[in-house]
Amino acid sequence: MSFLQGLLAARAHLSFLCGLGLAMGLVWYLDRVVPPHPNAGIDDFRAILALPAERAPGLRKTGAALSLHEMEWGRTAWHYFENNYQPETGLVNSVDNYPSATLWDLGSYLMGLLSARELGMIDVGAFETRLDLLLKSLSRLPLVDGALPNKVYNTRTLRMVDYANQEVPGGIGWSALDIARIGVPFTLICWRHPAFTSRVKGVLSAWHLDQATAHGMLQGAKRTSDGVLHHVQEGRFGYEEYASKSLFLLGLDVSRAIRYDLDVAVAEVS
Prior knowledge:
The protein is α+β, with helices and mostly antiparallel strands. The protein has nine helices and eight strands. Helix 4 crosses helix 5 (103-118), helix 5 packs antiparallel against helix 6 and helix 5 (103-118) runs parallel beside helix 7. The model is unreliable at 37-46 (pLDDT under 50).
């Protein structure tokens, strides 16, 4: 085969290499002559990360210490949990001076408790005392039809109530989203404080978690005025996927709820 015949045989490969070279050259040229966008460059991002913590606009390297102002913000937030703490049960009010809370609220308190310990706002003794008491109370919660926690509890008595904080002996139903929310700090406790793992498992083992999902979707329950408990699909785009990632770690089938591409459509807005 002559040299010319070889070139003809390799013309497809040569065309690809020439196109690749031209593309690289074009990128190099545009990078030199086109000014960068003021808000969208990796150099801008790196420059932000290089700023001192007090000057960076909300961004910092992972693990960087909080500024004095940020620590003060954290202490202010923690004061809420201190002011609304119920020492008899270890629960925290969802609203200031209102002795009621959902599992979502208690999940938020647990996240606050974990954060306060990580930031050194409370010592190990206070952290373990609070966590111990709360887990004891969670293990004593009356459950809706013996299955799952009620949507709301009185933080002083641990009794099932409605959203007006009126006692409802049978409960008003359960929320898969709220169960998933408290599942987030439960998972973190097991990872970060393994001495409490058996306690967390003890709480969860009393709950029939399998009833929080059905056919891969989140399943809540609500009791109607006739006293009948009805199972309903729960969650909407965003909340559903967030909750699913938590319930997945608890071993539940969330194969449909965790998918972003189901039950969502794209529409053109004019």
